[in-house]
Design goal:
The chain has 210 residues and is of the alpha+beta class. The protein contains eight helices and six strands; from the N terminus they run αααββββααβαβαα. It has one domain.
């Protein structure tokens, strides 16, 4: 698990967010943040291929500091993925589709409109919720086009982010083996949710954004 010194590194990074400082301290980053993240992700490979995100921000498209002030990893081969992220704001654990494309939202709504498929979805949401991963709040103010405001599953149809997540404040358990176990248990609780999304929504067919 991440040692307490990992948070000290992130505090220093906040005060020294430039490439020269990071290059001089890269060995500490690798030891305190990267290695524990990779180790945890490897324990979760049964959920799908792990990917640890690179530390550099893409300044060409998003002006701001050159380095990310967190470390994060995803798991899965699907469009729907598992995810965890450590920063000074805490630990975020989640799963699903964070930014579904228009065609993915259309397929999600079509599936939710079918009672049988919607029932399986609700069971998957309940399983994740029992472990503390809560479904995102609906973002649409009204029913999407083609659906009645009185639809029995209108709250689901108004979703734009099809994901479950939990935010943990920084606590001592993050630096213990119990932390690894808690993260694993929460991510595994979302397995039916991720499976439902990959089977009923799938990847976007729209051209990739450049």
């Amino acid at each position: 698990m991440w040692p307490p010194a990992a948070l000290d590194f992130l505090r220093e990074l906040e005060d020294n967010n430039d490439r020269d400082w990071f290059r001089a301290n890269r060995a500490r980053y690798d030891e305190l943040l990267l290695a524990p993240t990779r180790e945890l992700a490897s324990k979760l490979e049964r959920l799908g291929p792990p990917r640890v995100f690179r530390p550099y921000n893409n300044a060409r498209f998003r002006p701001g500091p050159p380095l990310k002030e967190h470390i994060a990893a995803s798991l899965g081969a699907g469009p729907a993925l598992y995810y965890f992220q450590l920063s000074l704001d805490g630990l975020v654990i989640g799963a699903g589709l964070w930014h579904p494309e228009t065609d993915q939202l259309e397929r999600f709504r079509t599936a939710i409109d079918v009672g049988r498929k919607a029932t399986v979805f609700e069971r998957a949401v309940a399983a994740a919720s029992s472990a503390g991963l809560l479904l995102a709040e609906p973002e649409l103010k009204r029913a999407p086009k083609g659906y009645s405001p009185d639809h029995p599953r209108i709250e689901r149809l108004r979703l734009k982010r099809i994901a479950v997540r939990h935010h943990h404040p920084l606590r001592r358990w993050l630096h213990t083996s119990a932390g690894d176990q808690r993260i694993q248990a929460q991510l595994e609780s979302a397995s039916a949710f991720v499976k439902w999304l990959n089977e009923n929504v799938g990847p976007s067919m729209r051209p990739r954004r450049r």
